[in-house]
Amino acid sequence: MSQFLSISGLRATIDDQGSPKEILRGVDLEIPAGEVHAIMGPNGSGKSTLSYVLSGREDYEVTGGEVSFEGRDLLAMEPEERAAAGVFLAFQAPVELPGVNNANFLRTAVNAVRRARNEPELDAVQFLKAARAEAKRLSMDAEMLKRNVNVGFSGGEKKRNEVLQMALLQPRFAILDETDSGLDIDALRVVAEGVKALRSPSFSALVITHHQRLLDYLVPDRVHVMARGRILKSGGPELAHQLEAQGYAGFLAEAA
Amino acid sequence: MNAIGGRPSPAGGNNASGFLSRYAELRDSLPGDVCVRDVAAAQLEREGLPRREVEAWKYTNLRPLWDTSFAGGSAVQEADAGPVLDALLSTLGDENAASARLVFLNGLLSDGLSRLPGSVTIRRTVPQPLPAGLHPMLALNQMLSADGVAIEVPAGLDGGRLLVIGLGSAEHAPADWHARVSIALGAGASLSVLQIDQGTGCYLSNAAITVSVAEGASLRHARLQRDAASAMSFALVHAQIAERGSYDVFNLALGATLARFEVHARLVGAQAAVHVNGAQLLDGEQVADLTSVISHDAPNCNSRQTVKNVLQGRARGVFQGKIVVARPAQKTDGYQMNQALLLSEQAEIDAKPELEIYADDVKCSHGATVGALDEEQLFYLRSRGVPVPEARAMLVQAFLLDAIELVQDEPFRQVLDDAIATWWAGRAA
Ligand SMILES: Nc1ncnc2c1ncn2[C@@H]1O[C@H](COP(=O)(O)OP(=O)(O)OP(=O)(O)O)[C@@H](O)[C@H]1O
Ligand SMILES: [Mg+2]
Fold this sequence. Notes:
Chain A: This is Fe-S cluster assembly ATPase SufC. Chain A: Residues 5-253 form the ABC transporter domain. By secondary structure, chain A is of the alpha/beta class. Chain A has helices at 47-55, 79-85, 102-116, 124-137, 155-169, 185-198, 212-218, 238-246, 249-255; strands at residues 5-16, 19-31, 36-40, 60-69, 72-73, 87-90, 97-101, 148-149, 173-177, 204-208, 222-227, 230-235. A six-stranded mixed β-sheet of chain A has the order 6-9-10-3-11-12, with helices on both faces. In chain A, strands 2-1-4-5 form a four-stranded antiparallel β-sheet. Chain A has a two-stranded antiparallel sheet with strand order 7-8. Helices cover 24% and strands 41% of the residues of chain B. Chain B contains ten helices and 18 strands. Chain B has an 18-stranded mixed β-sheet that branches. Chain A binds chain B through residues 55-59, 78-80, 82-84, 88-89, 91, 94-95, 97-100, 104-105, 108-109, 112-113, 116, 165, 169, and chain B through 375-377, 379-388, 390, 394-395, 397-402. Residues 47-48, 92, 177 of chain A line the site of magnesium ion (MG).
């Protein structure tokens, strides 16, 4: 069966003061088309690392394993090719770009992706119309389009800006790395709506979170527990409830 | 001075001997008072051109000047330069292209291609006597200068926009010219100047610019230095700013193999202001230098400098900024910031800020940063689908933004913006 996203035996290291430190130690994960999966796990277990490796960040060295996305070797692709192919990462800590206007940034990104997908580019007017409409849907102040990317944004505003990017780029596979952290309850609902709006038989999402609340809105098809660079356990939505009630200690002991 | 009047043999060991012997040949045919030129020649005869042991020239080696044998500026036909000018004007936007302009061809003012402004007086000038102890490049200019203009805006008038375009062409042998421009604004007058220097071939362009800003007057000066790849490009500004007057200059250095833009500004009246900003975008083996000496002679004056360097290949940027605050110049506000973005391992920035303060109640600060492109920012852009060249261009543009924004004349700023975009497109290809 040709999987939508298939990760097998993925290992990755990062350079830690001159010597490689292994962070991903054989991650196995299958995400079929049209599904929303969640990853939970203790701090430092490698969740963000996994999301960076999937989106092509170069500081990590992949030392083993494979990732195929719609039949393509994802790890062989440049970050911008992955974006064009439909991979999107909502960063846990969105990056500030002083001197780069948010609307400009968004338009450049949207048009770069459209070009790569052989779709016509949007002119300034078309783009602004689309961006304003999305911003409104996400209850974002359109003023944020005029500011520098993420500069001086509050924690929650940065996360909403990530969701705005997701909405405009229309990915086929979105990774949301703690996009719910630091959000007020209304914003949380907005983020969930942002994902729901994209839901379709050909869209999947991987939601990294520490909280049950986002999952209550999204209702994931599968929940995975990650610890020490591996997926230790997978289950249905009830697994998240179980974790919320019991914490990780039991799982870790059981797996050890 | 007898060595000058006759037919001298080049002084042994004098690195200006090539220029001096040409002067000896041309002396009687150059316009203006020959005594004024002789003073400069005597200085060059005595001191030569500065070598790197001279502190002010430590980072910028003038050696290519004396290693090249320049033949003066050959005359350029207006008919040949016309299409070059038209091509340039067509890139400047309608508003700028329609502005008044002074066009120099190899350092000589072209009457046919210039279009004189209404409210501004333009006069042909010849070198005027200057005090002893000339700046070496000014001495060279004073000795060999063949043409110049004086631009005067009468008191209370707005002189509007003026283009000062220098087109160079040295197809066969290395050429040199030493143009002179003097800009004087009467009390309360204003003027916005865009100076564009460009050309082809190997040449030395060594301009001397004198600026005089009277009480409450304001001069905006933007310069686009896009000289030929093998050119040496020097421009030296001496500015004097009276009470409440302001002189605002921005130098964008893109061209030439060796370039120096140097400003000596003197704030002589209270509440005067001078802004010496710039950006140097260099690649290959280019060297560009922005040197400034700002003298606060009067109280409550303000000087600001923001200089950005974007350096690729083995390019080298130089920034030397000196602020001198005299004893009476209380409440001086001086600010200086030099930043460099190194896009390759071999690129280099040399920066030398200097503060010399004799007054006690002053606010002077300077800062410098050096760095590479931020990998995290680059990855963020790429993860949104933006290809590397475009992502780098966006980040470089962002880096330059707070300097470029300081160019107050919007149509002129647009010209600089476009020039940067073109420069960048040339790299990314
Ligand atoms: N540049 C680095 N140098 C050394 N160690 C690093 C580096 N980057 C990440 N690590 C380590 O890798 C491990 C995994 O980090 P990662 O950010 O993937 O965890 P996480 O599961 O996302 O945690 P959290 O829930 O806190 O976000 C951590 O122990 C972290 O300290
Ligand atoms: Mg994380």
